[in-house]
Amino acid sequence: MNGSLREILEQLSDLRIVGRVEELAAEAVKGTTEGQVYILTRNGAPSYVLKLEEAEYTRETAQFLSRYAEAPLLPKLLYADQEHRYLLYEYQRGTTHVNRGGKKDWMSKLARGLLNHYTPERSFQGYGRPDSPCESWREFNRRSLAFASERIGDYLPAKDHELVERIWDHQLRDWGEEDKYWLHGDTGVHNFVYNAGKMTGVIDPSPIAGPIVYDFTYAFCSSPDDLNVETLLGAYNELNIRTVEREEVILETAFQLYCRIAICLLHHPQDLTAYLEAWPLWAAMAEKH
After folding, report:
1. What is the CA radius of gyration of the chain?
2. Distance of alpha carbon 27 from alpha carbon 47, whole angstroms
3. Architecture of domain 96-288 in this structure
4. Residues 6+ apart with CB under 8 A from 280
């Protein structure tokens, strides 16, 4: 155990949050950001997650977990360092990515256990991520479109790129202040905890300001299985805050799926074939609208 880690654990022990340091063991695990993540076991049982991150990320994550403390899928925040060097939250048993069960089930659980707890955001000026805010949601989507178009290139025909450009230009809603919420921002299967085929937790927020439909469609497109309308709308019916009609949900999903293909190429190219097989259905539905 290095000196800085021991110093943190001693501080948490003095605050009577984690018990005696001698009872703890720390296992370093790969984080999703540039910081360091430790699983802390107490008397042999995984009990806490300690994240050492950049100050801005730590502050935003702590604020998100505090804001939605009543959401049952989020881990309980136990301590946030006043200097924003680290935060400690409860350990959630299970695994990410795998043993998910059916998408309709875990998407419905996501709606009930997190998205329905979202509250409007009025203090943040702009949309998107705090470190690179946009003046409008339309601008946020434009940035996503530009990135995806360049990344995808010849993997899709020119007519499909033109279709998505038209969707962004003429059909996607430019969500306003009345529909702006503080979102998780990275609602993908890589951040969902599953146990025995059930979703039990959501970790690693990357908060953004925007419409709830973003987190919903992002989650739906985050894995290439069950990318069908029945699954989408079945889960959408679980949302208490439903601000778009069926046709608009389909357009938002088609746009999000296009962006997901670009992310797939960057981070998990092994899923590319499945995404490309799913894409024509959504392109055809978007073309009709």
Report:
1. 20
2. 12
3. Alpha-Beta Complex (3.90)
4. none
Beta strands in the chain (DSSP E): 24-29, 36-42, 45-52, 77-80, 86-90, 95-96, 181-183, 192-195, 198-202, 208-210
Give the Cα-Cα-Cα angle 171, 153, 254 (nearest 5 degrees).
30
Torsion (CA) 268, 271, 273, 279 in degrees, nearest 10: -100
Residue 196 exposure: Cα atoms within 13 Å on the Cβ side: 1
Assign domain 3-91 to its CATH superfamily. Answer: Phosphorylase Kinase; domain 1 (3.30.200.20)
Query: What distances in angstroms separate CA 123 from CA 29, 119, 120, one per listed residue?
Result: 35, 12, 9
> What local confidence, expressed as pLDDT, does residue 34 receive?
65
Please tell me the distance from the alpha carbon of residue 276 to that of residue 264, in angstroms, as a whole number: 10
Amino acid at 264: C
Contacts by 22-26, CB closer than 8 A, 24 or more apart = 26/1, 26/50
Residue whose structure tokens are 């935003």:
60
Q: Within its chain, how far is the Cα of 204 from the centroid?
A: 7
Report the alpha-carbon distance of residue 143 to residue 80 in Å, rounded.
Answer: 32
Burial class (CB in 10 A: 0-12, 13-18, 19+), 58: buried
Return mean pLDDT, the chain: 94
Length of the chain, please? Answer: 289
d(CA 101, CA 279): 22
Residue 31: its pLDDT value, please? 59
Instruction: Tell me whether the CATH fold assigned to 3-91 matches the one assigned to 96-288.
Output: no
Q: The pTM is what? A: 0.95
The first and second tokens of residue 190, run together, are 């890589």
Q: Amino acid identity, residue 26?
A: A
Write out the DSSP string of 50-105: EEE--HHHHHHHHHHHHHTTT-TTSPPEEEE-TTSSEEEEE---SEESSS---HHH
pLDDT tens sequence across 38-78: 999 998 899 999 999 999 999 999 999 999 999 999 999 99
